[in-house]
Design goal:
mainly beta; elongated
Length: 136
C-alpha cells in the first residue's frame, strides 16, 4: 500500500512540474460614471468612465448603452482600442452612437468592459454594469 502511495505522489509531482505555470492576472478596473451627456439631438451619448490598468500593460475598452425609448430600444456601443495603462486612474470619455433610435434624457443601462494585456501571457478583465442618467 505504501509503494502505491509513494508512486502516486511521485507521479503527481512530476506531472505538476511538467505543466506550464498559469498566467498571472493583470490589475484592471473600470467604473462607469452615473451621468452621461446627450449629443447631436440624441444620436449619441458621451459616457464618462474611469479606467485603471497595470503599468506597462495595453488596455482596450468596450462600452454599450441601452435605453427604453417609448417601448423600443435605443442601443449603441463603442470599442476604444487603446486606453492609458499607468497603474493610475484615468478618465476616458467614450462617445456611443445609437444604432437604432435616438437616445433621450432619462435612465439607460450601461455596460463597460476593460481588457488589459501584459506580454508575454498575462491578462485581466474588469467589468462594470449600471444604470446611468442621460442629461443634456
Amino acid at each position: 500500500m505504501r509503494a502505491i502511495s509513494a508512486f502516486v505522489l511521485t507521479a503527481a509531482a512530476i506531472l505538476a512540474t511538467a505543466l506550464p505555470a498559469s498566467a498571472a492576472q493583470v490589475e484592471a478596473a473600470v467604473a462607469v460614471q452615473p451621468q452621461a451627456r446627450l449629443e447631436a439631438r440624441g444620436a449619441a451619448v458621451v459616457v464618462p468612465t474611469q479606467v485603471m490598468c497595470q503599468n506597462g500593460a495595453t488596455g482596450s475598452l468596450w462600452v454599450q448603452v441601452t435605453q427604453n425609448v417609448r417601448g423600443e430600444l435605443a442601443v449603441g456601443d463603442k470599442y476604444t482600442p487603446s486606453v492609458p495603462c499607468t497603474g493610475e486612474l484615468h478618465k476616458v470619455d467614450v462617445t456611443v452612437v445609437s444604432r437604432t433610435k435616438a437616445f433621450r434624457q432619462g435612465v439607460a443601462f450601461t455596460s463597460a468592459s476593460l481588457n488589459a494585456y501584459l506580454p508575454p501571457d498575462s491578462s485581466g478583465i474588469a467589468e462594470d454594469n449600471r444604470e446611468m442618467r442621460i442629461v443634456r
